[in-house]
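task queued by scheduler; priority normal; single chain, no ligands, no partner chains; default sampling; output format set to structure tokens
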Amino acid sequence: FEVEGYTPQMVCEEYFRYVKSIIDQKVEYIISSKELKVTGIDYSLVYPSKVGDPFVDEYSRIIGKVFGKPKTVISSIKAVSMYAYHKKYFTADEPILFFDMGEGDISVAKAKVFTNAEFSGVVIDAADGHLLPKEIGGDDIDSAIVSYLENTIHKRETIGSPSYGDEGHIVEKGLHSKQYLLMKNVKKAKMILSKETHKRNLFENGVPITIARDVIVQRILTKEELKECIGVTSNSGIAKEIVDYIIEELKLSVNHDVKKVIISGGLIETYGLFEYIEEQIHKTQGLKDIQVFTIETKAEDDGLFRRIVMTPLSLWPTTNFKI
């Protein structure tokens, strides 16, 4: 990194100042449009559940420098648990399982209401009797899409080599830098395909993806192809590994009283994945009555609030948490 007058640390801090400016504009709009009387704003810092203390310390330092000292610093699992508790998605007689799906792994925790003479609140158990985190996530989805796309052009003629099927045919691979660009394109395509399709949508017939070889090869990735290459269509591959992990956890004796599951994280936003997981859970003997939820920015789902709306952490009541 060599930019005169800047360091990586300075760039990172400037990025969060930019984020703060956007948040401030949004908050000001909400206050004015709703005619709210606000005396102050408290910030809460939510960090990925699997990161270590050095990450949290640096994250807290930067946020503190830009936003001011956060009122609360909690993990993503605790944040989701807190929200679900205050929305009454689980009660003292009805614990809930949380699956946190990120780019690199899937982890699980169980939350339940606990009350005695000294403590009243939510207890989160992510260790005793539960599965260890599984190293599979959004990055594996991206890799599966790349492999799928590359397999579709294996028969392409390569300059200076025999045709496909003849001895000596070369399956060309892109330069490392070009593969990086391909991966970036795949991430964007996945995001576009996973959004709701509206009439006259620019990408209703698929998203074009450029594959760099000795010439530029363009492929169209459709929603159905996305489901196919991650294994949703055939109940195999990455999708099956994910659902097998969830079902195995649900079958553990420690979860005999669980009737509700919340899935969070960017991975679950992949087109068709949530519906596939829900369907496979309900097909499994003994699990057909399990309710499955996910977190989205929109709550309406055919008129039902099956999916939860996230609200600012600063609006949540104080909750006791033990882990």
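post-processing summary
- Helices lie at 8-34, 53-67, 76-86, 138-151, 176-193, 223-230, 237-250, 273-283.
- The two ends are 40 Å apart (CA to CA).
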